[in-house]
Design a protein that fits this description.
Layout (H helix, E strand, L loop, with lengths): L16 E13 L11 E13 L3 E5 L6 H8 L7 E6 L2 E2 L5 H7 L3 E4 L13 H11 L5 H14 L16 H13 L5 E5 L7 H18 L2 E5 L3 H7 L2 E6 L2 E7 H6 L4 H8 L40 H5 L5 E2 L8 E3 L5
The chain binds iron/sulfur cluster (SF4).
The site of iron/sulfur cluster has 14 residues, from loops.
Length: 338
């Protein structure tokens, strides 16, 4: 396991850190059959560290299976991490008992990829959005109703939509419902798990702009899991690139897109479509398939596919270290060569 240092916003001028994730690990062990061999341990997340400030959006990107969703869900304890620390305002969430965690969930919400699957089909929209307020016993019934009306307005839904059921909404409207529900408790952090990837392209921009407006208004921090780099470029302040359960590069958005350093980040960016064909870069093709997280390579996990690999890369795992950048910029990289 790598001991990646806490990385990212640690400069004096930066806004206060809301969330600090230290050396997060999530391993899955399969069930051993009678007299069978020891099943492999799937190292879904292996020593991930980062910080997230109030009102900031940090995107987690990488190929599917790189551990970005598991990392985000581990932060909320929707999957139970194997080890590490998840400090929210300095309190380690992994040390809380069930009731303490339930109370802390007021500050932590999630918006799912598939809004339809995350909304109960038997409840009307007003009840769905008001449910978190009811669960926490917040306000009287009439006050709650007034708050739900306000939440509908915030996400651009008309008050009469409160009496409709999820199947009566379009995909974009359902995601607005999911956002209204996530906002109900005025959270400090929302995990956005591919929140627009199930939506039509024309609706994606509306939902992304809505999320950005709500962040401006309420100062919410987003941990934004996505594979669409155009969306990431639009909404994020910083970007963390993951490969096979580890962060290989973190930088502020403009630096990362203009000057990607890690060989894997370069590959990822070269595959992303660019709006202006004159600025298109040549696509870098990788050899081979990503290794299984049940049998990750020793040393740098990218060495089996990296065009710049050296002998040291096969033996020693590179730590995530801060690189010299322009004033006010942050750039962290895990690579022996660059
Ligand atoms: Fe490539 Fe070596 Fe850097 Fe890993 S450490 S990304 S294998 S050059």
């Amino acid at each position: 396991m790598s001991s990646a240092p806490t990385s990212g916003v640690l400069h004096a001028s930066d806004p206060p850190v809301l969330l600090e994730v230290r050396s997060l690990v999530k391993h899955y062990t399969g069930q051993r059959r009678w007299f069978g061999p020891q099943p492999p341990v799937v190292q879904a997340v292996d020593g991930v560290s980062f910080t997230l400030s109030r009102g900031e959006t940090l995107a987690l990107v990488g190929e599917s299976g790189c551990g970005k969703t598991t990392t985000a869900k581990s932060v909320l304890r929707l999957v139970e991490p194997t080890s590490g620390q998840v400090l929210l305002e300095g309190v380690d969430l992994l040390g809380l008992d069930a009731e303490q965690m339930r109370l802390r969930r007021r500050d932590l919400q999630i918006i799912f990829q598939d809004p339809y699957a995350s909304l109960s089909p038997r409840l009307d929209a007003g009840t769905i959005v008001g449910e978190p307020l009811r669960n926490f016993g917040i306000a009287s019934r009439s006050e709650r109703e007034a708050q739900v009306v306000e939440l509908f307005a915030k996400v651009g839904l008309r008050p009469e939509a409160m009496r409709k059921y999820p199947h009566e909404f379009s995909g974009g409207q359902r995601q607005r419902l999911g956002i209204a529900r996530a906002l109900a408790l005025k959270p400090k952090l929302i995990v956005c798990d591919e929140p627009v990837s199930a939506l039509d392209v024309s609706v994606q921009a509306q939902v992304i702009n809505l999320l950005a407006d709500l962040q401006q208004e309420f100062g919410i921090a987003y941990l934004f899991v996505a594979h669409d780099l155009a969306v990431v470029r639009h909404i994020s302040h910083r970007v963390a690139v993951m490969y096979l359960g580890r962060i290989v590069e973190i930088a502020d958005r403009d630096t990362l897109f203009a000057q990607p350093l890690h060989p894997y980040t370069r590959v990822l960016l070269s595959a992303a479509p660019v709006p202006d064909p004159r600025r298109a870069t040549q696509r870098i093709l990788l050899e081979g398939e990503p290794p299984s997280p049940a049998r990750p390579p020793a040393g740098c996990r990218f060495h089996t596919r990296c065009p710049q690999a050296q002998p040291v890369c096969r033996e020693t795992s590179p730590n995530l270290t801060e690189r010299a950048t322009a004033p006010g910029r942050t750039h962290w990289l895990a690579c022996h060569v660059i």
